[in-house]
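Rotation project, supervised by the postdoc (A.L.). Task for the rotation student: set up a whole-complex structure prediction and record inputs and outputs verbatim in this book. Inputs entered:
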Amino acid sequence: MKLYNLSRVKLNNINPADITISIYGLGKMGLPLAGVFAKHNFKVIGVDINKKTVDSINKGINPVIEEKGLSSLIRKVTKTGFLKATTDGVEASKTSDIKIIIIPIYLDDKNNPDLSLLKDVVKKIGTGLQKGDIVILESTAPANTTLQVIGKMLEKISNLKLNKDFGLAHCPERISSQTAIKDIEGRLCPKIVGGSDLKTTRIAEYLYKKINKRDVISVQNPTVAELVKIWGEVYRDVNIAFANTLYLSCKELGVDAFEVINAANTNPYCRILTPGPGVGGHCIPVYPYFILKENTNNLLLNLSRQINDSMSTHVIYLAKEALKEKNIPLKDANILILGIAYRAGVKEVRKSPGIKIALELNSLSKTVYVNDPQFSKEDIEKLGFKYKEDFTKIDCIIITTGEKAFKKINWSMVKTQVKTKIVIDTKNIINKKALSNLGFVTKRIGYAK
Amino acid sequence: MKLYNLSRVKLNNINPADITISIYGLGKMGLPLAGVFAKHNFKVIGVDINKKTVDSINKGINPVIEEKGLSSLIRKVTKTGFLKATTDGVEASKTSDIKIIIIPIYLDDKNNPDLSLLKDVVKKIGTGLQKGDIVILESTAPANTTLQVIGKMLEKISNLKLNKDFGLAHCPERISSQTAIKDIEGRLCPKIVGGSDLKTTRIAEYLYKKINKRDVISVQNPTVAELVKIWGEVYRDVNIAFANTLYLSCKELGVDAFEVINAANTNPYCRILTPGPGVGGHCIPVYPYFILKENTNNLLLNLSRQINDSMSTHVIYLAKEALKEKNIPLKDANILILGIAYRAGVKEVRKSPGIKIALELNSLSKTVYVNDPQFSKEDIEKLGFKYKEDFTKIDCIIITTGEKAFKKINWSMVKTQVKTKIVIDTKNIINKKALSNLGFVTKRIGYAK
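Outputs recorded:
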């Protein structure tokens, strides 16, 4: 059912089953979204260019996206018929009333946002676009992408007029890996919606109120919604840079940053974040560039990016200092990096500090080995690194994620395997005293020693 | 009673009335502290170099420190005899068991911390220092001031040995003007205490547990306590710089920053602060320099200071833009600054944005007038500004604090008085629509327009 020209009263009486939603992008964020809409009785057409993904979903099988509750959800909603998948984006656009785009937007080598994938999708949607349709962007995107890029493309391709024939909204995802389904349903955050006009905003409100049990908050237009998402992430980048600055400063004064942070945060107006080996993932290290390229007030963002990016060099400095205490030059050392995911519990390496550290060490040390319980030997070798299952020959262990398995390491056993007893802990998970008693030299981010 | 060598068990059985505390500095923070200790039955000797202040207190009269509940507290504790005041710092040191320093530490012209006042006080305390005494610094101070400056001075002057004959602690005040008494008693924050040794820390815990009903948190040493206080304030400076950056960036894109901030903050992990005309007061704009001078990791702090300091220039830019719309060059304009306090409700001008803006405008505009309900005509003239009670001749009104009186301004009346109808609102207190209807040109920090 076409919604764009419905009155508010009629809108609220519509049965979800009368609305067909196509969802473009069946990745780690898109598939949970498709599943949740289908669970709430919307007719959902999932669209993806990957035929294997589509075929798997149509068989009711999660195409190996590691996400809690997703496999059973997909099984259920394909069985009831509320979710179908296809590779045909044009046909899906033709047969759906609402089209939601939820594909990641990456950066190119020069940190410019790469909109090519997005534009491919918009072309397909535009080709199938009909009067009364609604198009929603959920992907986090540079400011003005929704109106200036998608809106203009859709008008040109479809020969329809925005805010007359069809509506456009930005409703940014606020999803974390591992809690995606719950996040979509409002675990932590209300949904933010910004339509190209009031009618579209109202439809977006209707839609997301059906699935987000917390709340739906509407903003003036899609650009505001874009900025809400971007600045929320940039906030974290700047505050992590602040925590890293605090740590480096405290270290110079011989003080443990964690003690300062914990005590300062007893003031309810103070919420200092945690220092670490850098910031990885699809969001925090990426979205500052969605603003940096847009305007001139970027000194603080630029500097914060630089501070967080340079933490990998600091980790290597810690390793070098520890090796010096054992009279081993870095160039002669065998290093084992524990953790190449960008954070614990996920099998994703985008902008991961572990990889950054490994790459930098490749040319500085003798050999760099890698282990991460989220990745198999094959995975790690495919990424171009040397896999290691034990600790033999190792001069220095660097922990870069807070994996459960790393917290449970039996250091008495490790002691018998390693060549040199050194641990660099960037995630505050080791017991320094216990390791010192075993003869390990340790260095830790967040502490003076 | 000398506490330094008492056991923990004995300490907990001591009656406050057996302990004499001298408190150095009876200003807006020191006098409430003296009052609260006296209220909890400690014998308190208040010390100040100002004889008028001391005489007034000894008569039971608050020496005009504007602080809620302070006058009645002083009346009460002088009547019971638990608070006495003196100008004789050496004698007060001789007759007290615990000496607390709570005087402000300012910056000199080059933003170097000026410790001269502090050293004067320490000299007096040192001269009267006896075995078993405890000295506590409550003033926020540059890192290492407690141990390296006060500790060394006390040892030299008294010929006593720190951590053998006497103890030293930093227990930073976490007090805001207008809520000082409640803050001391733990309205928001637990007390942070860091002693030069464990014995001293334990005594500080005993002492502050008597008055802070929230909690007392002990840290490893005085330097950690110094850093806790400094970084807590620097956190605010950096996050205000972030909010200002966000605002300036959103403005370029034609978006209201407040809408973005409010929506982003619906994520419980996001707590973006409020943009404004700069940061004033004794704390936030001062304490970054307590770190900046101490070590090299200062880029983020330096930049944040610069961003916040430059907001006054942005306010003048807004005034210029508004005047341009009325075809008035800034150099021909009569400006009225509403607010010279550093924030609403206080009669204090230290580092106030209103004053900074007024001074910058002095050479750029025709005449600058000032009004602030916290200050009389005489006060304002003493500060070197032209006082104005009405709105006649005015071309541009700039609001720099959120005073209640400014929120209640009758703009229909103002309209009949001013020469040109322009309002620059840096504190988000006007109703833009209402003022536009009255014919005012308005510019607001936090909004695109």
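Student's summary: Chain B touches chain A through 60 residues (CB under 8 Å).
Supervisor addendum: The radius of gyration of chain B is 24 Å.
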